[in-house]
Amino acid sequence: PVDEQLAIVRKLDKPLAAELRAPVLALAEAAGEEVRGRAAWALNETLEQETVERLVTVAERERDGEILRALLRAEVLPRAERVVRAALALGLGERLRDDLCAAAEHGQLTGDEVVALLDERAPEELAPLLRLAEAQLGVRPEPALQRAVLRRLFDATLSVKLRCEACWVLLRAQKRVGEALTPFRLAEERVSWAFGDWREFLDRLAAMLADEALLKEVGVYDWLADLLRYERSPALGEELARAGVSTDAVCQALVRVAAGDYWVYLRTAAAEVFPLFAAHASAEARAALLALRDRPDLPTDLRYWLERAGA
Questions:
Q1: Are 99 and 69 in contact (CB under 8 A)?
Q2: What is the rounded CA–CA span in Å between residue 219 and residue 217?
Q3: What is the pLDDT of residue 245?
Q4: How far is CA 262 from the centre of its chain?
Q5: Do 267 and 299 form a contact (C-beta atoms < 8 A)?
Q6: Per-residue pLDDT reduced to its tens digit, 14-60
Q7: In angstroms, rounded to a whole number, what is the distance separating the alpha carbons of residues 133 and 165?
Q8: Angle (CA) 144 145 149, round 5°
Q9: What is the pLDDT of residue 129?
């Protein structure tokens, strides 16, 4: 009877004695929902690869999130990626968000495994994975995972909510681990690391600067303002010249931000960095941008930097 099964499972001591593991596992495979979950929790301190595989198979068959919760909370979890994939496949990512993070904090996953999950899941499944990435960066600040999150921030195909969450993941992880994570900068080495080349990055940057809703998000406008004003190479102009890329779209976007209804720190950062990009714009784009100096409603700081760009 179920009541007797529950009574037995509740009385089990942890860690489970070796001779009890097989019968408790069999109970988890054959019993009803409540007993299954209790049995999985009883087993989660003594997990072996075969045990994990059998429990995940039951969880998938019965759509049992409690089994997956028990596994994700284990201090040692063989095949952790298999468990995470099962949770996502069952649509349990949000429900198990804290448990997913616990698995990362216990060191159950590698950064490459989390990157693979980010790469293969649909956008609607990314929210819990971004939280998982944050937890992972807190214990293992691996550059590949940092890059994967950064690319989500610059991915114009994702929702503003997801891109904002990606930004906060980077901000919180940087605060937690400090110099263990190298901040992204407007510098040739970091742009190549994250995006391959200046051309791809500038396309993404121009799209971000044109996204009015995104630039109104707390966290995003702080991060972007710091990037434009402080996190840039002293030789940015020379690096752009070597790359030989067009900066027309970025220049147009910077002017829109500097003259727009945005946080003043972001507006001034856009205005200040403008001359460095304008020096590498086409003659037509430069002429159109510099003609803005004659607008009577132009903010004073933007007029100053436009004049500097024309000098």
A1: yes
A2: 6
A3: 94
A4: 24
A5: yes
A6: 788 889 899 999 989 988 888 899 999 999 988 999 999 999 999 99
A7: 11
A8: 120
A9: 93
Place of tokens 């590698």: 110
Residue type, 219: G
Residue 31 per-residue DSSP state: S
Reported as a single tens digit per residue, the pLDDT across 154-174 is 999 999 999 999 999 999 999
d(CA 74, CA 45): 6
CA angle 97, 98, 103 (to 5 degrees): 100
Tokens 């044109």 locate to: 210
What is residue 17's predicted lDDT score, i.e. its pLDDT?
87
User: Where do we find the tokens 């791809």?
Assistant: 200
- Give CA–CA dist 255/46, Å, rounded: 60
CA atoms within 13 A on the CB side of 27: 24
Please count the CA atoms within 13 angstroms of the CA of 253 that sit on its side-chain side. Answer: 19
Degrees, nearest 5: CA angle 219-103-52:
150
What is d(CA 80, CA 98) in angstroms, rounded to the nearest whole number?
A: 15
Cβ neighbours of residue 144 closer than 8 Å, sequence gap 6 or more: 111, 112, 115
Tokens of residue 153, six digits: 């921030």
Would you say 251 and 289 are in contact if contact means Cβ atoms under 8 Å apart?
yes
Q: For the segment 115-127, what is each residue's pLDDT rounded down to a tens digit?
A: 999 999 999 989 9
Six token digits for residue 11: 């009385």
Question: Cα–Cα distance between 210 and 193 in angstroms, integer?
Answer: 24
pTM comes to 0.87
The arithmetic mean of pLDDT across residues 6-17, rounded, is 82
Helices 33-43 and 49-62 meet at what angle, rounded to 10? 160
- Residues 6 or more apart whose CB falls under 8 angstroms from that of 224 comprise 208, 209, 215, 266, 269
